[in-house]
Amino acid sequence: MSLVSITEMLIKAREGKYAVGAFNILDYNSMRVVVETARELQAPVIVQTSEKTVLFWGFKPIVSWIKELAEDANVPVAIHLDHCKDLSIIKNCIDAGWSSVMIDASSRPLEENIALSQQVVKMAKFHGISVEAELGEIGGIEEDISINEENAHLAGVEQSKIFLEKVKVDCFAPAIGTAHGLYKGEPKIAFDRLKEISLLSDTPLALHGGTGLSEDVFKKCIALGCSKINISTQLKYAFIDGFLNYYKSKPTEYNPLTILKAQYNALKQAVAENIMLFGSNQKV
Ligand SMILES: [Zn+2]
User: Above 70 in pLDDT, residue 8?
Assistant: First the structure.
């Protein structure tokens, strides 16, 4: 199957009351895990790249890996650019072959956020590419973006209404109290706010900061319209721990391929666990 945008898979997910996992990859091995696990579980899937990962590898290699993997997958696979403030990087991703992008102008005043997001929608729609945008500010640390608790704020209902009327996004990420990175203590999710926002439109919602949320929280958020759930931090841990744990158990072996295999297996467990929690298995 060739690459798809996130539009159709998320509409189906919102209607079917499950969520598609959006997994941040780091290299070819982790990308392969995400696509192969989705194939085994017959789940639609979103392979997500941070701006940093894109700049580390370059645009062309990432697209060539994902195209080859998606072709053999027989499940819908999207390649999505995660939080990006830089329109030139977004444009380069669109030109290189990404099937979906996120514009994150959430730190700007509402009118500017709307104008920038509209600009990206215009740019992407011309190529049949889907767009996610954010409102409010999601706390925590993601790559180089750090939002402390005082600056993190929930998306307003009235502001969300205005935003959704003016910007025709395929996926809307309202800040509802989740955070990037690891939670210190119990996360405080504003379910009431999420409910009010979900009633505004049928637009699928994205839940950021999925690592560390409980099954109960996922279920509630999915029931309230979250159709895309981002998992990044958990995969960073699996990536490094999978590698280190194997090395620690066999420090004298020095066989890189067996270490990569151990890393693959640790990542696979994390990806499979989340797909099952989100209920997207057997949904193709
Ligand atoms: Zn995020």
Answer: yes
pTM as predicted: 0.96
CATH of the domain at 88: 3.20.20.70
- For the sheet containing 179-180, what is the strand order? 145-147, 139-142, 179-180
Active site residues: 82
pLDDT at 249: 96
- Residue 263 falls inside a structural domain: no
Cβ atoms < 10 Å from Cβ of 17:
13
* Cα of 258 from ligand 1 centre, angstroms: 32
d(CA 51, CA 213): 24
- 178 close to 208: Cβ distance less than 8 angstroms: yes
Percent of the chain scoring above 70 in pLDDT: 98
Assigned token pair, 129: 């590419």
Q: What is the reported pLDDT for 142?
A: 73
What token pair was written down for 255? 């066989």
- In this structure, the number of other CB atoms found within 10 A of the CB of residue 282 comes to 9
Contacts of 252 (CB under 8 A, 6+ apart): none
Q: DSSP states of 59-117 as a string?
A: HHHHHHHHHHHHHTT-S-EEEEE-S---HHHHHHHHHHT-SEEEE--TTS-HHHHHHHH
Span from the CA of 145 to the centroid of ligand 1 (angstroms): 10
Q: Is residue 248 part of a domain?
A: no
Distance (angstroms) between ligand 1 centre and the Cα of 248 equals 32
